[in-house]
Amino acid sequence: MFGPSTQDTAYQQEAARRLHLPFPLLPDEGLALARALGLPTFEADGQTLLRRVTLILRDGVIEHVFYPVFPPDRNAAEVLAWLRAHPA
Questions:
Q1: Cβ distance 2 to 54 under 8 Å?
Q2: InterPro entries, from UniProt (predicted)?
Q3: In Å, how far are 2, 42, 49, 84 from 45, measured between CA atoms?
Q4: Where are the domains of the chain?
Q5: What is the pLDDT of residue 48?
């Protein structure tokens, strides 16, 4: 599990510590990944940020997309239910 982020590395490191993230943040400061995958973005305080999206990948192929992720507190359960219904 990874979390892409458009912020710089210093911000990512601080956010990961502050939020106690159980996964690493992947740098995408130049938006190369976001553009290549057509990920949803928004603008805030002059920055382009990624909207919440969950991608399920198997063998390097996007198999399923959860978007929009709302409400976010239900997303983990939805993803687990989907994975149980679609075993590898």
A1: no
A2: Redoxin, Thioredoxin-like_sf
A3: 25, 10, 10, 39
A4: 1-51, 54-88
A5: 95
